[in-house]
């Protein structure tokens, strides 16, 4: 096993140092810019013949790919690169189209491996908020939370002040923006770290005071380069003689730092040692797992990038600018804009912010007005409220701003450098990275026509799964009647809309694509149901009343009992707090499950959430006796309560919020994690057609949501279709209705 790490100029510049070791052998530090170019190329070629162990393979392999391509194009292979910085920086942009791909024999990424087990809990997660605690008891509650809930320091490892309270007291604001003097929120904000040094301390047992961290050896801030993750080359920032602080302007400081600073070199050596120790700590996980192989693929493909049509991108940008409205987009500006046409009561909805979900809910508000076309003078009609019109204007303006920004990034880059976190969520789905989210590219033909993706000499192939989440849901529900309806060609979104709006199937389908699109509302309802949503979710997302939504859920469950059984099963597993006698009665605790598995066995753990939920429940059940001596009363949510009673209510509410989040995440996981795994496996078998070692580019896979695309050489077109079909079919025993529409000879992303 070859254990590898690298040190770089910034995140997207160039590698300065390679550090590596074979098995339990000596750790070697190799100065990339101080050795002849041919030696570096030969070393990388040798790396590619090995089984490699990384901690963040996507990062390291991106830099290996960049160095190999750029150095290979330099005419003097005996040159010392430190003496030719500007020349190499100019070559860097052209080296993206270097015809050879480098790929290790096999690899294991320990960062990704850690995310599949107990260290999964270190991934990004939402704050836990105890809302509207009486101010008089806010500080006592904060101290009690600190005392009762013991949490490992690894969940706060990225905090600057390690001694600060983990639970913080936050102000609550009135609708007019003033601070509410009567209440505070208590917030637990995670700052977890799954970094190598953190795992060295918490998993391997290294003492914190002997671990060298970047802050101990970091180069001066004036040596930090200006860089763009979506345009990872120096000429995107500056030019020779005016590099504008791109990596060529600061690299000399980095070369000296990593070559001559003994502490920095010790830091670099330690990284290989920690990686090797972690490999043994994890019982030598097998190399060549799909996530690790895809991480190397992401690094290699990100460096090369995909072809884009600059002229079409510029035309699209001009259209966006011309269509953009003057609606405000900043949170405070939006609040002011909407409050102009809202009543004080209506404006309370803005207390929770101006995010997409809130604005989409407001955009559905309607009011009743006289019908000017009716013969009856008392006749009325529903129209969109003024606040709804303005909310939609804000949504459109924000979308336009984002689209313009994305187009500007692509125009500057000249290519589409798609970067991903291979395990970017707790469901194992990929997510975008490095200052540009490929999954956020607008899914309209006029935008995607700007992305031909395939360079000359390559053919674009690709496809997406047909109704992917629906067929996975069907496999989860195991309902014979639902399967029969789907096989008969009926759309589940329209079937749910029938129950939601009391319409026939044909009536729903007639509205599809119109302004009053009930089919789309049915689709939102199905997604809400699949992912553990409640009647309140439908009220906020679709605009129907909770009563109507509850009735739709119930009747749909009666129509398809498998759906109701699946929802009940999730509730039984993760509904830890119950009120058997009904709302307002005693709350009892039932130990929830620790994890849920996708249909393919990937686990999503709830250990941390369950621990905090139980602690909040216990505190609500048994608060400190002294709190009852605080003889003040407060009005909380239209109820008059004692201060102690209000705290108990707030604790229960926070615990129920965690439980609700767990229920939604569990339902989500069974479907989304299954889909993510299948999509990755398809992408993997396509990437397997690229030989390991150093070979001409054969295929460049790209995965966005349920789509897999791949520019490839002509001789692989049919082979890719064959391996994709075989892989998709291999999942049919688990997902009976699985189907992928695969196409060959596409002219752009839009053709998929």
UniProtKB/TrEMBL annotation:
Q: Which InterPro entries match?
A: DNA-dir_DNA_pol_A_palm_dom (IPR001098), DNA/RNA_pol_sf (IPR043502), DNA_polymerase_A (IPR002298)
Keywords (A to Z) from UniProt: DNA replication
One GO BP: double-strand break repair
Annotated GO MF terms: DNA binding; DNA-directed DNA polymerase activity
Q: Where is the DNA-directed DNA polymerase family A palm domain?
A: 444-716
Key word Iron present = no
The UniProt record lists the keyword Transferase? no
Q: Which SMART domains match?
A: POLAc
Pfam families given in the database record:
DNA_pol_A
- PANTHER family, from UniProt? DNA POLYMERASE I (PTHR10133), DNA POLYMERASE NU (PTHR10133:SF27)
Protein's name according to its UniProt entry: DNA-directed DNA polymerase family A palm domain-containing protein
Source organism of this protein record = marine sediment metagenome
